[in-house]
Structure formats: C-alpha cells, structure tokens
Amino acid sequence: MIVILKPNAPQDKVQTLIHQLESQRLTVHFSQGVNSTLLGLVGDTASVDIDHLLADDAVADVKRISEPYKLANRRFHPLDTTISVEGREIGPKTFQVIAGPCSVESQEQLANVAQSVKESGAGFLRGGAFKPRTSPYSFQGLEEKGIELLLEAKRLTGLPIVTEIMSDSQIDEFQQVDIIQVGARNMQNFRLLKALGHLNKPILLKRGLSNTIEEWLMSAEYIMAGGNEQIILCERGIRTFETALRNNLDLSAVPLVKRLSHLPIIIDPSHAAGMAWMVQPLARAAIAAGADGLMVEVHNNPKKALCDGAQSLNPEEFHLLMEDVKRRVAFEGREM
Ligand code: PEP
Ligand code: MN
After folding, report:
1. What pTM, to 2 d.p., does this model score?
2. What CATH number has the domain bearing residue 114?
3. Cβ-based burial of 60 (10 A; exposed 0-12, middle 13-18, buried ≥19)
4. What is the DSSP letter of 30?
5. Which of 165, 268, 313 to mutate to test the pocket of ligand 1 (most atoms within 8 A of CB)?
C-alpha cells in the first residue's frame, strides 16, 4: 500500500503518522521525490482502514497495490479449493449441476422435479423456500414448510439440497440444509455473512446485481474470516445498460476469479438471461470458460410457475441440456 503525502505536510504530523502505522506492525518506507513524498507500507495491510488514513491531515491519497482479501486470495493459497458435500465434490476436477425450481411450491411439484433432475444427472436439488421478491405482493415462498419439503425430496432422491437464507435469524432452521445459498440481494448483508462464518457448512455465495469482483471476494472473505472456508461462488448475471436481457452474464468473471482466488465458481445461466431458450448456449459458454458447475432452474410446468417461469426449463429440456453438458464435460476429462 502506498500513502501519498500532501506537499506541505508538517514534519511532526508525518512522524506521528509513521509511528501510528508502525504500531500496526507495518514497515514504513519513506521516499522523498522531487514532486511528491510517499510512504510505502509493507506487511499485513488488509486491516488498514483507508478512510481513516485519508482523514489524516498529512495524507493526500492512498493506493492499494495488493488485494484487500487474504483468505480468499490465491496468492496465499495457490491450490484450488474443492468442497465436499455428501460424497460429491465441487472443484476443478468435477462439474456439478444444481437443479430444481426457483421456489418450492408443493410436495407434488418438488418431488416430481427432484426425481426428474436426478434421472437426468443433476448432483444437487435446489429450491427456494424463502424468496427475496422485488414486490411484497409476489409469492414469498412456502418458508419453513418449503424446507421440510426439500428435506423430504432429499430422502426420496438422495440429492443434497441447496436453498436460500435471507437473515441471520434463520440459521437454526437451516441446520439440515446441505448448502446454504446467499442470494444476490444479500451478498453484502454483512451480519448474515458473519453469522455464516461460524458454521461448518458450504455456502453458495451469489454475486450481487451491481457488485464488483473485489466486493464479491470481500464478501467471501467475511464468511472465511469467521472460520468457514467452504465457499462456492456463483455468477448469475449483473446489471448493465442492456435491457434486452434480465441481466448480463459476466463470463469473464470465471477466468478472473480463478486467477484471483482458489474458490470454486459456478454459473447460473437461468437468472443471467431470464429466458429459458438461452440457458443452453450460456451453459456451454460456462463450461468453455472453465466454470466448476451450473445452477439451473427447472419446473414441471414453467408456464404455471409461481416464480421465474420464463427462465425455467421443463424436465425434457433439462434432460437435453444435461446430455449436451455431459458430452462437453467428458470431452474436457472432468467428472460429473
Ligand atoms: C434464486 O436463485 O432463485 C435467486 C433468487 O437468485 P438471485 O439471488 O441470483 O437473484
Ligand atoms: Mn429464481
């Protein structure tokens, strides 16, 4: 980290600042140039508060030269992380598909979808019990009953379940959930992230609608800082100026996250475009970009879905998608 001092910063103020930085176990290199004076900070700068430094009378600007996240950073953890859930691995050697309805609607609907996605080769069942809807008048999910139905579908099919948590007050209700999803709208719910950091359970962390990759990795860092290092990142499309799609799938996030972090990353092509017919091409692109898996919305009757019907595949469409995915994944020498 580099601290640029104000041209006329008084000597005593600079000395006080240097002492203060050294007391944070940082080594400070003072460099006097013709036009500017710099302090080079070496050490663990992740916990340095930039706003605090900028408020100092002697400081003109502060520049980070290394990433502010440590535990999620590949620099300090060169090997890829593989996450194990009930004997299934999510990481670079495998390609996992999580599939199921946007929201759990009934016992019959979930059992039907769970059976069919399992037969097509999905490794995990998804389904929202608590739904973060833009309108308070839209279907909000079956809530606790939805979790019960997911557990029942797990008993029926053996598929581990993935479902979204909305608040730290719900943690007890999620004890038997295999992977807890943090939705795009909660990516920066720091209180929730901190609480999830105390669990010993994988967290599927979706990228926020308008969040940078650094902010996303900092959210992963929040969970990891509490001791839970089992994070699966999920790119689900971001907001841009484009209105023809629900979101824009940022596929460049896959190679970039793989370079910056050791955490696995999967793609959600359903929320990315918002249109069922685009799921397959985006899924193919995700495999080509090096993603570790997919999360796909599947509904037994998309036209009647209470949530996200336009982007949901029916079981037959999902089956065809999986045949295509299996061929491509096999070609890359990865397991499903
Ligand atoms: C979902 O997975 O159904 C969902 C609400 O996703 P996101 O948080 O990406 O909008
Ligand atoms: Mn959805």
Report:
1. 0.93
2. 3.20.20.70
3. middle
4. E
5. 268
